[in-house]
Amino acid sequence: MLYTTDTIHQLTVPTPFGVGDVHTYLLKGDSLTLVDAGIKTEEAWKALEAGLKEVGYTPQDVEQIVLTHHHPDHIGLVDRFPNMIGLYGHEDNRKWLERDEPFLNRFRAFFLELYRQFGVGEEYQAFFKHLRDPLKYVGEGTLTKSLQEGDTIPGHKEWKVVATPGHAESHLSFFRAQDGTMLSGDHLLYHISSNPLLEPPRHPGGVRPKPLVTYRETMEKCLSYPIKKVMPGHGPVFDGVHDIIRTRLQKQEQRAQKVYDMLGAHSLTPFEVCQQLFPSHIKKEFGLTMSETVGQLDYLESVQRVQVEKKDGIYYYTAV
Ligand SMILES: [Zn+2]
């Protein structure tokens, strides 16, 4: 159902992904602004046009787009608004919008090397053939200006930018203090926990981000915001977010405990842990299951419950 207030219209479009529909939000203020831009399919574009029409607008009326993060279901239609004069988001969106060849090659090389170090077997080489597949769902463009923690959305000074990395390094949420509303992208969802996904370091040769550890920090940070209502990228609008955050953190600790118990007296590679943790999903959801596994191992390492050792260029994790 369409969620609407005086200044916000929720517009929902379908995606071909397992996550289902994705929401964008039309903000009315000094500028007409779309928060997120769906996915690049004709079905999504038709749904977005129809949604705009339902609330009295056309694509020609949209002046700005603000991005919560760089994933395809959130930046897909950025190049479909002829009168758009501003495209804003975290600086890390830029490389995904411009996606030049050196960046894409670096992305592939990073994962090839990372998964080799994680002990991934030859039979998963096919995964690398499909790394670029999601790009067909992404529009092209570039950022007009990047946003960071403490900024406000241009033309909507009541909406403050809150950096919420974890699900993606580029993730921003937007908080309106006057009524405690948060536009949370995929950082806070009601029906599912977000997957913190592995990403290359921001700068070549830098340290690999630890997305689950970062995600936990961001969740804890959100506990200090008086959030009353969350308008997410997927699923229902909801309240009671602080209870949800506490439950999510506990559940994650339980999953980490499962990994810890699994390690037992063995030294295992992340790939071996992933095979045991997701025997029936690893083939179909290789990237997701590896991200989840490595996330739990990173968390256990951060609380000093596992030790990591590199032997012949491959990482082994041992419970302590
Ligand atoms: Zn999403």
Automatic annotation (TrEMBL):
Pfam families: Lactamase_B. Residues 21-234 form the Metallo-beta-lactamase domain. InterPro entries: Metallo-B-lactamas (IPR001279), RibonucZ/Hydroxyglut_hydro (IPR036866), Sec-metab_biosynth-thioest (IPR050662). This is MBL fold metallo-hydrolase. It comes from Pontibacillus salicampi.
